[in-house]
Amino acid sequence: MLGIFSFNFLHANTMEEVIVTSAIIGKASSEIADPIHIVSGDDISTEATQSLGETVDDLLGVSTADYGSAVGQPIIRGMSGSRVKILDNGIVNRDVSGLGADHFNDIDLGNAQQIEVVRGPSSLLYTNGTIGGIINVVDNSIAMEDVEQLVKVGGETQSVNEGNTTTFFYQDNLNNLNVSFAYKNTDLENYDVPNGAIMHEEEEHHDDEDHDEHEEEHEEHEENLGFLVNSDFATESMKFGASVVSDNGYLGFSISSSESSYGIPFHGEGHEGHGDEHGDEHGDEEEGHDEHEGERIFTNTDSDKFDIKGSYDLDGFNFANSVDFFYRDSDYSYTEQHAEEEHEEEEHHDEEEDHHDEEEHHDEHEGHSEGPTTFTNDSAEAGFIFDLSNDLYSQKVSFNLVNEDTAIFGAEAFMNPASREELTIGYYFSRSFDGFDIDLGVRYDTIDNIGSVTSVHEEEHHDEEEEDHHDEDHHDEDEHHDEEMEADYYDRSFNDSSIAFNIGRVLNDFVDVNLGFASVERAPSSIEMFMNGAHLVTGRFEVGNVNLDSETSNNIDLSVNINNGSFFASASVFVNDVDNYIYLQDETEEEHEEHDEEHEEGHDDHGGLILANYLQQDAELDGYEIEFGNTFELASGELLMSYGRDEINGEFSNGGNIPRLNPARNIYKLKYSQDDMSFGLMFKDVEEQNDIGLGETSTAAYDMLNAKFTKTFDLDSQSQLTLSIFGNNLTDEVTRNHSSYVKKEVPLPGRNYGVRFNLTF
Predict the structure, then answer these.
(1) What CA–CA distance (Å, rounded) separates 86 from 330?
(2) d(Cα 689, Cα 660) in Å, to the nearest integer?
(3) CA-CA distance, 42 to 656, in Å (whole number)?
């Protein structure tokens, strides 16, 4: 609800041109109840290629959790992960982004017609557990109306990463068959960072007296390192769709395939086991990074989706006007690898005589030699939405069935295979009368989480003679043999009910008020329940909790919107009480020291990683968003100026802060438009974050200045060229995202210049 009016006013000209049918509801996007924002396809196609999170990061109430250029997981009002559902044409995108902070959302923005940020009653129509909301990326791969021939060719280059992007799109109506084909190829190298931006977590643990010399050398190195190692990203995607449209509705299908490869700029395992020898070893490691000869940690992803969608007019039936239906089958895999390790193993393969050197090599890279780790998600989903509307009100009933299998196998298999089954029914109602607009959404979900947790049990030896027989040199080997692996299997069912209600009132020609309430339940995810191992990208040994209960979010928000011709303003405040809030709690320094002492006595030290447990307790989040601006009519063109601010706070019932909440932001925008030309500036002032959770550190404030110039040229009556010149982080400031697990090690990119063109004919 917040910010919808102000955002639409800012982009009024664009919004009038964007008429996209919402993927699932079958209504125009303007009819979707309570969207926060709508980002037009024109805005997407003229910006630098970036992650989904970065694309929506400048919207009030919306931010991103980054992990390099490829990964940007969206956050809505402090909610992220499985609390925010990412949709592709109205269907949940089921990849493995929820299994790791370094996993990206498998969403292709190459031919996106718009991005919808939605919460409130309508979000319940899409999927369950939408405590934060949904982000729906819409394209026209399955046309709901007959299309005309259209060809688009695009290209882009960026300076910060020497990146290049090419796009191609074709659609046409061939003998009443609507067909479309979209292609995108992106290749981004390691991105540049401002001097002094690279940091390493180990620096916090240096003793000043013992490491002065090393730190001086390290500082000198960082001044010379102008890029972030393993921050490259490459992807190639294709999508084909076809549909038939008749007076009774439409029926179509689409096939999409994408492959990507991107580096992981930080991996906890790379910093494990340095101990007292950290100084020398780290120096050698950094030297290797400078020469691009350090260990390359990267991922390969492979995604295939098959969709069937349609709508059929049921006017001949008494119980419903029409039915919308869909089916999606998706296969997704994510493989993390260590390239140099494989290379070095080949070099040592034939050196059997130098066995001692081989052992030293293994010790140096302990934990990397096991091979890759593969994450997979195979899912099938089907749904129906029956339209029961009449002349007085809109009314819909939805049914959904989901089967999802998730597995992790390989060197970093920190969770056993798990499956999830969902059966849901939803009801949506909307009516306008006497100056009031009422929206109601109700949903009931039955969810089965099936998985297992493997535990290690140590056997005790009571035979003293047998104990004396063992040599001290083989003690570790004997301990290994004394360990037994045992898996405990769990099948937990959750019956969740959710309701959302919104009432809007038009006070006069200039002012309207909206009040919303939502009580939404979210069942715990597989990783929150069954996680049990080293999660190296977060530098933690994470332990799930099979006894977790469903979260219940009780949210109230109030917004006021003003539109008085050229002047516009909006303000929104919200309070979100979350019962049984699930979070990851790091152990304290004292607890970590106790574990170290236990390790000396023969207990597991969790590989030197921080022990983190999934816990839950009641929490409260509150905040606000405000925005106001004015449009000035000039002799030639118009000038729009606006100011926006958002802020969120979060505390647990015991008084501690919720970790990784983004700090308050001030966003200033200026845009000059004249016919087929526009120029815009955005200045983002991000404040310091000192309200930190247990184990967190404060994050410094920073400023971000971006600019964009766009010009459209009419080549002839049927073709256009749109040219966009952009510049991001023009002041080349060191910037760190507080919501990131690796903010110290992975800063945001430095100054970036780029050019993008789109040819349409």
Answers:
(1) 15
(2) 9
(3) 43
Mean pLDDT across the stretch 166-191? 96
User: What's the topology of domain 4-760?
Assistant: Maltoporin; Chain A (2.40.170)
Token pair for residue 630? 């004015």
Give per-residue pLDDT as tens, 239-274: 999 999 999 999 999 999 999 999 988 876 533 333
CA 91, 94, 97, 100 dihedral sign is positive
Averaged pLDDT, 84-97: 90
Tokens 């008429």, located at residue: 19
Report yes or no: 523 and 494 within 8 Å, Cβ to Cβ. yes
Strand segments, DSSP code E, in 411-461 are 418-433, 436-458
Q: Which residues pair with 582 in a beta bridge?
A: 616
Q: What is the mean pLDDT of residues 34-46?
A: 81
Mean pLDDT, residues 127-140 taken together? 89
The token duo for 225 is: 């390192």
8 A C-beta contact, residue 691 and residue 622: no
Q: How far apart are CA 513 and CA 586, in angstroms?
A: 42
> In the block, which residue shows the tokens 């022990």?
611
Exposure pattern of 409-448 as b/e (b: 16+ CB <10 Å)? eebbbbbbbbbbebebebbbbbeeeeeebbbbbbbbbebe
**Using one digit for the tens of pLDDT, what is the confidence trace for 302-326?**
999 999 999 999 876 777 899 999 9
CB-based burial label for 87 (10 Å; 0-12, 13-18, 19+):
buried
Q: How far apart are CA 404 and CA 380, in angstroms?
A: 7
CB 230 within 8 A of CB 263: yes
Tell me how far apart the alpha carbons of residues 276 and 202 are, in angstroms, rounded to a whole number.
11
| Composition of the chain by helix, strand, coil, percent to 5 | 20, 50, 30
**Sign of the alpha-carbon dihedral angle for 286, 291, 295, 296:** positive
pLDDT value of position 535: 78
Tell me whether residue 529 is exposed, middle or buried, using C-beta atoms within 10 angstroms of its C-beta: 0 to 12, 13 to 18, 19 or more: buried
Q: The tokens of 750 are what? A: 């430095």
Closest CA to 163 of 189, 185, 192: 189
Torsion (CA) 596, 602, 605, 608 in degrees, nearest 10: 70
User: Strands 610-633 and 540-543: what pairing?
Assistant: parallel
- In b/e form, how buried is each residue of 34-66, taking b as 16+ CB within 10 angstroms? bbbbbbbbbbbbbbbbbbbbbbbbbbbbbbbbb
Q: Write the CA distances from 492 to 43, 154, 160, 614, integer angstroms.
A: 44, 49, 48, 17
- pLDDT value for 586: 79
Q: The whole model's pTM is what?
A: 0.82
Q: Left, alpha or beta for 537 (phi > 0: left; psi -120 to 50: alpha)? A: alpha
What digits encode the pLDDT tens for the residues 583-605?
Answer: 888 776 666 566 555 555 544 55
In angstroms, the first-to-last Cα distance of the chain is: 37
* Residues in CB range of 462: below 8 A, 6 or more apart: none
pLDDT of residue 199: 61
- Is the separation of the CB atoms in 679 and 665 below 8 Å? no
Cβ atoms 326, 383 nearer than 8 A? yes
